[in-house]
Amino acid sequence: MKQLNRYHPLSIVFDIWKTAKNSFFAIFYLYILNFSSDSTFIYYARMIFLFLMGITLITIFLKWYTYKYSVKETSFELYHGIIKKTKKTVPFSKIQNVNRHTSLFHRLFKVTSIHFETGTAEDSSVKFPVITIAAADQLEEYITEKGEKKESNISSEDLDSSEKSDLPNRKTVHFQPRRKDIVKASFTSLSFLVLIPILGSIYSKMNQVLDLEERAEGYLSYLLDAWWMIIIFVLILGCVSLLIGMVWTFLKYGKYEISSDEERIYIKKGIMETTEFSILKSRVQAVEVSQTFMKRLLGLAEVKLTSAGSFSGGEELEVNTLYPFLPLTRAYELITELLPTYEVASNLHSLPKKSLGIRLLKPSWFWAIATGALFYFHPVFFHVEMTWLILSILLLALIVLARVLDYYHTGYLVQGQFIQFKTGGFTTTTFLSRRDKIIEVGVSRNLIQQFLGLATVTTVNRAQPVYHNTLTDVPLNFTTLFYSWYMEREKEVEHE
Prior knowledge:
Layout: E1 5-6, H1 10-22, H2 24-33, H3 40-66, E2 68-71, E3 75-80, E4 86-91, E5 95-102, H4 104-109, E6 111-118, E7 126-132, H5 133-144, H6 156-160, E8 172-175, H7 179-188, H8 195-210, H9 212-215, H10 217-225, H11 227-253, E9 257-260, E10 264-269, E11 274-280, E12 284-291, H12 293-298, E13 300-307, H13 315-318, E14 326-327, H14 328-338, E15 349-350, H15 353-361, H16 365-377, H17 387-409, E16 411-415, E17 418-424, E18 428-434, E19 438-444, H18 447-452, E20 454-461, E21 467-475, H19 476-487
Helix pairs in contact: 1-3, 7-11, 15-17, 16-17
C-alpha cells in the first residue's frame, strides 16, 4: 500500500468516547448533581464546558481528516498535524514489539487497536487506535515477513475490510492457567481485599449525606456486645471478598496464554478486555524472575522480559510480563522453552562472609529518621508509654533480618555466554542475560570495600529506559573474571 490512507472512521467515535469518559465527573457535577442550581458559577461553568467540548469535537474530526499514513516496502510513513504538517518515517527494522488491545468499545464494533513499538523514543512508535482485526493481522504478518522482501499486497480496501485474514497458525502454546492457578493468583495478588476500600468509600459517601454514624450508634453498640454476630459478619465479608477477588482475577488472567513460534513470543490476556503482545526473541535483552514474600510462600514467581522496545507504561507495560503467578520450576522451564538460547542455572556462587558484615554495619538512614519521628510524636498504644521504643526495635529487627536474608539469597554465576545474578531479602529477583545483549559493564569500590577486598559490579542492557542491574559486595577476584568474560563480547558482536 503506497497511497495515503486515513485512519479508520471509527477513530472519531473512539476519541469522542474517551473524551466522554474523561469528562464524566464534570458532567455529573454540572448537569446531575447541580441539575436545578441557579448559581452563577454553575451557569458559567456549563458554558465553558460546552465551549471546550465543541473545540474538542472539532479537533477530533480535523485530526482524523489530516492524519494519514502509508505502508511502504520497508517502512511506515506517517503524516501528522492540523496546522503544522509533519512527516515521519518509521522503518520496519526499528519495530521491536507489537501490542494489541481490544477494549469493550472495540469488541462492540468488532475492531481492535494495534501498537508497533520501536526501540527509540515513544513518539517514534506507530499506533492504530482503531483498525479492523483482518487489517491488523495483515499488517503484523507483513512486517513479520519483511525480511523476505515480498511485494506489499495490503491495500486500503483490505484495511477497511472486516473479513478475517487467513494467516497460518504456527504457534506453540506453552502455558494456560488452570483453575487452581487462578485460585492461587487470587490469594497472591490480594485481590480479595478490593472489597474493603470499596465498602469504605461507599460508607464515607453515604455518611456525608445521611449522617450514618449518628443513626447507627445504637446498633453499633448492640453489635459490639453480640460477639457471635461480629464473627458471622466477618465470615460473610471474607467469603464475599474472596469470591469477588477470584472473579476479578479470572477476568484478568482467566484466558491468559503464552505461546511462541520460531521468531516471536506471544502473550494474550483478558476476558472483557483483551491485550495481545508479541516480541521478537532476538530482541529480548534480559530475563528477570521475581518473587514477593507471598509468592515465595506459595512457590510462585513472575517472569519479565526486558526488550529494547519503548513500553508506554500502565497496562501496556504489564504485558511484557509472563503469567505473574507461575510455579517456580515451571517458570524456569518456560524460559528455556521460549528462549532456547538462554540457560538458567540453579547453583550459584555465594557471597563471602565478610559481605554479611559490611551489610550489617551499613547505617540505615530510614531507621534513624523513623526513630526520630517516633520519639518526637511519642505514640502510645494500649497504654504503653514506651511504644515508640518498641516500634523502633521492631523496625531495626526487620531491617537486620532483610539484610541477612539478602546475604543468603544473593548469588552470581558467569558461565559461557550467560551471566546470572540473584538478589533480595523478603523479595528476591533473579537476573539473566547473554553477553552479546549487555552493552556496558562497570566495577566500583568504596573505601570499606577496598579494605575488605570487595567490589560492586554493574551491567547495562538496552531498554526504554536503559536497564541497569547491580550486584554489591562481590569478591575482588570475581571482577577480574567478570571483565575477562565481557571482553570476549568483541568476538561475538561486530559493531553496536
